Amino acid sequence: MSYAVKEIFLTLQGEGVHAGRRAVFLRFTGCNLWTGREEDRATAICQFCDTDFVGMDGENGGRYLAQDLAAKVESLWGEGKSARYVVLTGGEPMLQVDDALVDALHAHGFTIAIESNGTIATHPRIDWVCISPKAGSDVVQRRGDELKLVWPQQGSEPDLMEQWDFANFLIQPMDCGAESENRANVVGATDFVMRHPKWRLSLQNHKILGLP
Ligand SMILES: C[S@@+](CC[C@H](N)C(=O)[O-])C[C@H]1O[C@@H](n2cnc3c(N)ncnc32)[C@H](O)[C@@H]1O
Ligand SMILES: Nc1nc2[nH]cc(C(=O)O)c2c(=O)[nH]1
Ligand code: SF4
Ligand SMILES: [Mg+2]
Q1: So what's the pLDDT on residue 8?
Q2: Is 101 in the pocket of ligand 1 (CB under 6 A)?
Q3: How far, in whole angstroms, is CA 191 from its chain's centroid?
Q4: In what residue span(s) does the Radical SAM core domain sit (predicted)?
Q5: Catalytic residue numbers?
Q6: Which of 84, 100, 124, 182 is most exposed by smallest CB count within 10 Å?
Q7: Are the C-beta atoms of 171 and 178 separated by less than 8 Å?
Q8: How far is residue 157's CA from residue 162's CA, in Å, rounded to a whole number?
C-alpha cells in the first residue's frame, strides 16, 4: 500500500506531555471529520481545525511506499540513533497507518507517537497514543497515553471522558485566530484546570516559538 502525505518536517513537539521534544512530524493527507475545504467548515463535524491537510503539496509531501517513507523520516532526523521520535498526524493518520509503516519506522529505530481524533482504533504497536476528541463524533479509542481536549467545545463532556483509560488528561485552549478570543480560551482552560486537578494545561508552544 502507498501513503498520501501532506508534509514531513523536523521540529519540536509543541503540544501535550511531550512538548519540547525533538520530533519528525509526518502529516498525512485527509480527514474523516472535515474535507479541509473552507466552504465545508461550517457543516463539518470538526470546525476549528488549524491545519492544512489537503493534497500532497507540502514540504516533502507526496505518495510514498512504507520503506521510502521510513527512509525519508530517518533522513530528516539525521545521523543520531538515540531518542528517535516520529509523530504521525494529519488530517487523521489512522485513515492510512498500517502494519507495514509501523514496522518500517520501528526498524529504523523510531519511537512512534500518534495524534488522532479517536474515531478509528489506533494501531496496537504505536508507542504513544494521544487522542483529541471532537464533539459530535463517536470516539472509539478510549484508552491511551494522553487525552488532549481542545477547549471550549460545545457538547464535549470532560466529566465522562475522565472515566476513560488514559494516563494523562490535558486541556488545550482553542486557537481561533483572533487575539481576544484566544486569550479568553487560555483563561477558560486555566480556570478549568484550577477547578479540575486531574487535568493539565497544554499550550501550543510551536506557535509561540514560531516553529512549524
Ligand atoms: C490537526 S490535528 C491532527 C490529528 C487528528 N486529526 C486530531 O484531531 O487529533 C492535531 C492536533 O491539533 C489540535 N487542534 C486542531 N485545531 C486546533 C485549534 N484550532 N486549536 C487548538 N488545537 C487544535 C487537534 O485537536 C489535535 O490535538
Ligand atoms: N510543532 C508542532 N507540534 C505539534 N503537535 C501536534 C501537532 C499537530 O498538528 O498534530 C503539531 C504541529 O503541527 N507542530
Ligand atoms: S479531526 Fe483533526 S485533522 Fe480533522 S479537522 Fe479536526 S483537528 Fe483537523
Ligand atoms: Mg498542528
Answers
A1: 99
A2: no
A3: 24
A4: 18-212
A5: 25, 31, 46, 49-51, 115, 206
A6: 124
A7: no
A8: 9
Per-residue pLDDT, 1: 85
> By C-alpha distance, which of 127, 36, 133, 39 is closest to 90?
36
**pLDDT at position 196:** 97
Pocket residue to mutate for ligand 3, from 28, 37, 51, 131, most atoms within 8 A of Cβ: 51
Among all ligands shown, which has an atom nearest to the Cα of 189?
A: 1
- Return averaged pLDDT per consecutive 10 residues of the chain, 212 residues in all: 97 98 99 98 98 98 98 97 98 98 98 99 99 98 98 95 98 97 98 98 98 98
- Cα–Cα distance for residue pair 76/128, rounded to 1 Å: 20
Domains within the chain, CATH numbers bracketed: 2-209 (3.20.20.70)
Q: Would you say 133 is a known binding-site residue?
A: yes
- What are the distances in angstroms from CA 165 to CA 8, 138, 151? 30, 16, 20
DSSP string, 82-117: TT-EEEEESS-GGGT--HHHHHHHHHTT-EEEEEE-
Q: Is residue 212 annotated as involved in ligand binding? A: yes
Which candidate, 49, 50, 66, 53, places its Cα nearest to that of 7?
Answer: 53
| Ligand 2 pocket, Cβ-based, cut-off 6 angstroms | 11-15, 25, 51, 89, 115, 206, 211-212
